Amino acid sequence: MIAKISETLEHINLQGGWPTPRLHPTKEIDAASSALFKQKDIQQNLRYGPELGSSNLRGAIADWLTESYAPKAGPVVSERVAITNGASNGLACALQKFSDPSYTQGVWMVEPTYFLACPIFRDAGLGGKIFGVPEGDDGIDLEYLGNRLQEVDERTDPLAEPRKTVQGGYPKIYRHIVYIIPTFSNPSGGTMSLESRKRLIKLARKHDALVVSDDVYDVLRWPASENEALEAVGAFTPRLVDVDRNLEGFSAWGNTLSNGSFSKIVAPGIRVGWVEAMPALISAMGTVGATVSGGCQAHFASIVVEKMLSSGALSSHIQKTLIPTYRARWLSMTKAIREHLYPLGVRIVGDEGEKAGKIAGGFFLYLSFNACAASGPTIASIALDEYNLKIAPGGIFSVPDDPESKVRGEDTYLHGARLCWAWNEEVVLVDGIKRLAKAILDASK
């Protein structure tokens, strides 16, 4: 019996959004941990941690964010920061404290979306209220979102009160939740402009929405042109939390929460993240039941990260290891796509080439198969079955709770795929793209 081609090829996974283990800063983690155990107060560090996290780490993160983003609204202060068990935990805790299944009218997710966030919303009791919003050339479609928010608000009793009360420990409940990844989005790779961010904040204020933005990829950024030095990357696009507090008319609670994580820049297993928002909202985050019971949900790991951040080891790791490595991989992948896939009608969504001034980053890019003779699902199936290549097909990025999500995606993201460059080395990435080209040719016969 002749073996299938796939049985002779080593598996390549371009779907998983994980950093390569060799990039984990093991020496730096070891040094930080060793330094902690040499401290005379190590026994204190092994106790329950403060609900909002170590004050030293909160301050170190605030300083790091201030240095990184240079927000026009002023420095980030520690009162704006709380420590979490990672971005997923940050989202879950925010929903526990600031949403109410009987009062919150909708969760609005950009489509294509990070589909693994959906179960977190369902666990918060918001199943049946999770809706998709199309993504345009500049992030979430704000006209569509505004119209849908207005429709829902008009059929909602304006006198309705949350079941979660102030007296019960819930000082603020939002009418809507908007979930997006505004910079180097997962899965599309897109980044919202500053003007669109301002418009989104104004919409959120009008409709009493909390915009939860996963800001987990922002610091992984580089010039798209390989002829430009890394130092030419320029200023960050202001985060939504900075736009919110810099726009006239902001409230004490605000309408944004920045959800950060060290999973992508230290290691996923470190299980430490942070949230940033207005001080009133952050203070309330410290009253989430599980946190009150057990203290900071990532206490010991968080003080390891504190050592790495305060010593400069983490910033050095990002600048000297992660960014150069990911940039080289991104360049190898995009060049291979243009060489092997573009002649077949494939395109990188939002591709402007490696022109001067363009910024790339994050973990992902999105391919469109719309101009191919074969469908996206067929291409993905043949790639896996015949070429032992796993890609993330567009169908998994719909909003499963919204029946109209896949209908809207029929002409766009459903006939595409997300690819990740963070896991594989350059030579493997190029091999994967060549296999994908063969799969497309096979699917088109």
Automatic annotation (TrEMBL):
Gene3D superfamilies (alphabetical): Aspartate Aminotransferase, domain 1 (3.90.1150.10), Type I PLP-dependent aspartate aminotransferase-like (Major domain) (3.40.640.10)
Matches recorded under CDD domains: AAT_like (cd00609)
Residues of the Aminotransferase class I/classII large domain: 33-400
InterPro entries in the record: Aminotransferase_I/II_large (IPR004839), PyrdxlP-dep_Trfase (IPR015424), PyrdxlP-dep_Trfase_major (IPR015421), PyrdxlP-dep_Trfase_small (IPR015422)
Pfam families in UniProt: Aminotran_1_2
This protein's name: Aminotransferase class I/classII large domain-containing protein
Organism: Bionectria ochroleuca
Taxonomic classification: Eukaryota, Fungi, Dikarya, Ascomycota, Pezizomycotina
